[in-house]
């Protein structure tokens, strides 16, 4: 029986909203009039009840999206008010003036109860197909969901003449006037070139570039500067980095394993090239979502789909069906969220479990996108043109044919040998009297022998009889004779072990050290990288027994393959040079059928057969080398695409185990009032689904994509967007400061064919962008953050810009573009990954930071300290914190110490070794794009005299003027 508290809780929510259904001015409706559910009851439930009583959030196990749950839980009996518990809990006690529900709120009036009573008495009519859904805070009238407005720049007669020419300035000036603010004068040329160069390239201008610009008196000098910077290959590196932030590009998979992804870098290069080529952004959207469809066979296009799979994903491989389904749902959720936020500026992911509480995004919209991406799977795929594939196939074909013929001949000879051996099996097997080798332990006893060394040699593994390396040893024991035998191999007794380690540099080699074989503990194993394990005793001993094992406890046996010996020999030595065999596996039975066949082969094969097989093996090896010499086709982290047909369902509460209504791949209803939508069949080709979504995103009628893009451009030019939440244009985001300007920019993007460089040039040629950043107290009282742009907002350089600047001014920056990234960490991997920051840095790390192999959860000293985001999530904007670690890193880190020394060397080369004043002047021009003033010159001389030129360079690197832009 359901508790009264549960029923009362429901009643509380219902009663609290009944007042909305009452007629105006206290008029009591005619009791005979039918209560209309849709206009009277439904709004009540939606407004006050459905939030806590809906699929996925069923408080009291009760959902109010339909009548069925009310009836099943005994709250309501249609036609019988007296049997409807709901009315009981909302009834007001005449003596106390209170009702059981709602708690802590004003009780319902008699008229309000009567209205609900009449509805029940009249049969509690509830249209069968009507399912109630929670209303969002915003609806389809929300500002960002409206069509783009064709705004004309306002007239601004009361502002300086220079501000009346450019459309952007007129929009800004009008808002400044409205806020009673005045713009700032134009910045100096030195400030402008530094600002523009960092803004477009992320690097400082050279002294020569500054001098040329300052000396250029032509009226279009600044425009020529912008054109030069937009044409620089450095432009794509800077603006590509911005976009990589937005799409959460990372080169490890995150989660607990977080293993590196070595072939995701082509997407980074693709993004950089796309910006440098001024590729239309609508084309980039299509390539990001469906590059494999529109550019099949073209690596330069197909690589765009890395966008879908460059986020974190869980690759642990959980085989539990429930957890596996949940992991898959989480994986697709990452694609849905990123797509919604990057292109539409909508937090679509909030609709995974329920209708969006704030924006008009239905759960059905979310799962329509889920169906769209259902065929996308993380992983690598060969990406090559048809011509490249045909050329390689032509090279492989004859070699593979030769290898096939050799393999056939080899199989025929080995088959004949095996057939003969089977006829002699009884004779061959007679010597095999001992039990087979066991992973849990092998014991060999022999006549007592004096030895100081014992050597075990692998002659075959249990699951790969011809292989000799890769076996495991968890403990190796050598026992003395006598009444009190001792394990003289034990490290505690002075034993030492030698053996090559199979782990490569960068792995957790220490965890597989050969000393684990004699530590006296069972568990951790040595994985052999050579056929031999050698034990040396503290002194010569008389021994007669050896015991060794791979998995003595038996706990790991089912998890490992090809990890123990099937054939071995044991030898002893007194000097480590001359060896004598004391035991072997030759008299043991084989561990499996493959091992048995190997022994038969060795016993039966004739010299001629062995000779021919050796020749065949040599020919196969030669063919393999020739095959290996043919470069493989590139395999890139672009995802794999499989056809996954419906039916697709809403997951109730986001739980894949609770399937709700069916959905199909379709456009979002959020923009149904302004865009022409699409709807595909559940079995539509998976590529067609993604292409339809991409085309809908960049359709001319869709106002969100160009609005969001325009705002991102503004954000990266001014530090804050017109909407300060670049990936959230919904209710929880901020309102635009200049909505008319935002729409004007969005329309310009569309009319300019979605090419960005021209729009950026327009922004940078505006007086708004060219303003000085001088602080004015009276203006700051009105607009402290300069959101209305009464001055240019100063900013600190990003972590990448700071690092690149230090390399640039010291003369060490390597401008090589593209290819695999460098690492500022040591990568340690054994099932899970660890990233240890490097302590020393060489020329291989002196490239631009955008080419760093950007692993998730990898702390990279200077970059991390200066707020480079962890790309486990999309970063629509960067933080700019001030922390002690930043000062400590710039002052004491080995990287900055090295660059201080390199800068000093550069100053001596370019200004002379003895001319301190010229060295100081050159340093100021390199770092600050200006000469020093007299006071600075004097202080610099004193510092150099007292502490040397590198100390002066170190002080310059640590200055605010270097890392802040005005």
TrEMBL record:
<dbReference type="Pfam" id="PF07583">
    <property type="entry name" value="PSCyt2"/>
</dbReference>
<feature type="domain" description="Cytochrome C Planctomycete-type">
    <location>
        <begin position="49"/>
        <end position="102"/>
    </location>
</feature>
<dbReference type="Pfam" id="PF07635">
    <property type="entry name" value="PSCyt1"/>
</dbReference>
<dbReference type="Pfam" id="PF00754">
    <property type="entry name" value="F5_F8_type_C"/>
</dbReference>
<protein>
    <submittedName>
        <fullName>F5/8 type C domain protein</fullName>
    </submittedName>
</protein>
<keyword id="KW-0732">Signal</keyword>
<feature type="domain" description="DUF1553">
    <location>
        <begin position="689"/>
        <end position="943"/>
    </location>
</feature>
<feature type="domain" description="DUF1549">
    <location>
        <begin position="167"/>
        <end position="375"/>
    </location>
</feature>
<dbReference type="InterPro" id="IPR000421">
    <property type="entry name" value="FA58C"/>
</dbReference>
<dbReference type="InterPro" id="IPR008979">
    <property type="entry name" value="Galactose-bd-like_sf"/>
</dbReference>
<dbReference type="InterPro" id="IPR011429">
    <property type="entry name" value="Cyt_c_Planctomycete-type"/>
</dbReference>
<feature type="signal peptide">
    <location>
        <begin position="1"/>
        <end position="24"/>
    </location>
</feature>
<feature type="domain" description="F5/8 type C">
    <location>
        <begin position="509"/>
        <end position="593"/>
    </location>
</feature>
<dbReference type="InterPro" id="IPR011444">
    <property type="entry name" value="DUF1549"/>
</dbReference>
<dbReference type="Pfam" id="PF07587">
    <property type="entry name" value="PSD1"/>
</dbReference>
<dbReference type="InterPro" id="IPR022655">
    <property type="entry name" value="DUF1553"/>
</dbReference>
């Amino acid at each position: 029986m359901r508790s009264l508290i549960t029923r009362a809780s429901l009643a509380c929510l219902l009663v609290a909203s009944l007042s909305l259904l009452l007629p105006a001015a206290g008029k009591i409706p005619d009791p005979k009039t039918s209560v209309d559910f849709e206009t009277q009851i439904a709004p009540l439930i939606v407004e006050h009840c459905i939030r806590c009583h809906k699929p996925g959030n069923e408080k009291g196990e009760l959902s109010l999206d339909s009548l069925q749950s009310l009836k099943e839980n005994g709250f309501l009996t249609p036609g019988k008010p007296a049997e409807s518990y709901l009315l009981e809990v909302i009834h007001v006690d005449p003596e106390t003036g209170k009702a059981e529900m709602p708690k802590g709120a004003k009780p319902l009036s008699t008229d309000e109860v009567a209205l609900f009573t009449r509805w029940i008495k009249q049969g509690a009519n509830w249209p069968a197909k009507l399912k109630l859904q929670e209303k969002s805070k915003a609806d389809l009238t929300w500002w960002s969901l409206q069509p783009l407005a064709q705004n004309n720049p306002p007239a601004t007669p009361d502002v300086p003449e220079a501000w009346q020419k450019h459309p952007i300035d007129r929009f800004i000036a009008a808002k400044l006037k409205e806020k009673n603010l005045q713009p700032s004068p134009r910045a100096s040329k030195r400030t402008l070139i530094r600002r523009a160069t960092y803004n477009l390239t992320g690097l400082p201008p050279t002294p020569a570039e500054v001098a040329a610009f300052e000396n250029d008196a032509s009226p279009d000098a600044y425009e020529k500067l912008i054109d030069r910077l937009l044409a620089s290959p450095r432009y794509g590196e800077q603006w590509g980095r911005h976009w990589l932030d937005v799409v959460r590009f990372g080169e490890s998979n995150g989660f607990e394993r977080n293993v590196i992804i070595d072939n995701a870098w082509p997407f980074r290069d693709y993004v950089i090239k796309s910006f440098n080529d001024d590729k239309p952004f609508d084309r980039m959207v299509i390539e990001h979502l469906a590059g494999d469809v529109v550019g099949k066979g073209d690596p330069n296009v197909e690589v765009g789909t890395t966008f879908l799979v460059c986020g974190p994903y869980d690759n642990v491989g959980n085989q539990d069906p429930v957890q596996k389904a949940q992991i898959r749902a989480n994986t697709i959720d990452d694609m849905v969220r990123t797509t919604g936020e990057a292109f539409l500026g909508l937090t679509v992911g909030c609709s995974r479990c329920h209708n969006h509480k704030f924006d008009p995004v239905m759960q059905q919209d979310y799962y329509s996108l889920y169906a769209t991406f259902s065929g996308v799977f993380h992983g690598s795929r060969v990406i090559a043109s048809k011509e490249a594939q045909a050329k390689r196939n032509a090279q492989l074909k004859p070699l593979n044919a030769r290898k096939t013929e050799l393999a056939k001949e080899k199989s025929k000879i080995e088959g004949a040998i095996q057939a003969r051996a089977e006829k002699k099996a009884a004779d061959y097997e007679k010597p095999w009297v001992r039990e087979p080798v066991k992973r849990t332990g092998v014991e060999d006893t022999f006549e007592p022998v004096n030895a100081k060394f014992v050597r075990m040699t692998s002659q075959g593994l249990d699951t790969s009889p011809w292989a000799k390396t890769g076996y495991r040893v968890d403990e190796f024991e050598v026992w003395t004779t006598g009444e009190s035998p001792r394990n003289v191999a034990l490290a505690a007794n002075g034993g030492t072990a030698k053996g090559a380690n199979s782990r490569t540099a960068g792995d957790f080699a220490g965890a597989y050290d050969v000393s684990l074989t004699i530590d006296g503990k069972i568990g951790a194993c040595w994985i052999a990288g050579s056929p031999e394990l050698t034990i040396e005793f503290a002194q010569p001993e008389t021994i007669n027994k050896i015991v060794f094992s791979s998995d003595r406890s038996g706990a790991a046996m089912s998890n490992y393959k090809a990890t123990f010996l099937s054939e071995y020999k044991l030898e002893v030595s007194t000097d480590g040079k001359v060896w004598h065999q004391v035991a072997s596996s030759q008299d043991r039975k084989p561990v499996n059928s493959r091992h048995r066949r190997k022994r038969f082969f060795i016993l039966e094969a004739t010299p001629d057969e062995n000779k021919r097989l050796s020749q065949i093996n040599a020919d196969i090896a030669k063919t393999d080398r020739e095959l290996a010499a043919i470069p493989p086709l590139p395999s890139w982290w672009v995802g794999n695409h499989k056809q996954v047909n419906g039916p697709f369902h809403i997951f109730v509460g986001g739980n894949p185990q609770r399937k709700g209504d069916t959905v199909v791949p379709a456009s979002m209803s959020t923009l149904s009032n302004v865009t022409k939508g699409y709807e595909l069949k559940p079995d539509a080709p998976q590529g067609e689904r993604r292409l339809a979504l991409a085309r809908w995103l960049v359709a001319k009628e869709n106002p969100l994509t160009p609005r969001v893009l325009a705002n991102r451009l503004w954000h990266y030019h001014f530090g804050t967007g017109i909407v300060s939440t670049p990936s959230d244009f919904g209710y929880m985001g901020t309102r635009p400061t200049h909505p008319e300007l935002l729409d004007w920019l969005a329309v310009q993007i569309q009319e300019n064919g979605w090419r960005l460089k021209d729009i950026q040039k327009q922004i940078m040629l505006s007086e708004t962008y060219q303003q000085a950043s001088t602080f004015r107290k009276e203006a700051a009282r009105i607009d402290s953050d300069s959101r209305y742009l009464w001055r240019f907002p100063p900013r600190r350089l990003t972590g990448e810009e700071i690092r690149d600047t230090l390399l640039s001014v010291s003369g060490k920056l390597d401008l090589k573009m593209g290819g695999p990234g460098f690492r500022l960490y040591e990568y340690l991997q054994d099932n899970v990954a660890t990233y240890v920051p490097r302590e020393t840095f060489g020329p291989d790390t002196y490239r631009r930071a955008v080419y760093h192999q950007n692993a998730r959860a990898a702390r990279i000293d200077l970059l991390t300290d200066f707020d480079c985001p962890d790309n486990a999530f999309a970063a629509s904007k960067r933080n700019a914190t001030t922390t002690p670690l930043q000062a400590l890193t710039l002052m004491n880190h080995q990287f900055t110490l090295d660059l201080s020394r390199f800068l000093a060397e550069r100053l001596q080369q370019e200004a002379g070794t003895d001319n301190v004043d010229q060295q100081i002047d050159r340093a100021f021009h390199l770092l600050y794009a200006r000469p020093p003033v007299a006071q600075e010159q004097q202080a610099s001389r004193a510092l150099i005299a007292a502490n040397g030129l590198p100390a002066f360079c170190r002080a310059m690197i640590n200055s605010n003027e270097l890392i802040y832009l005005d």
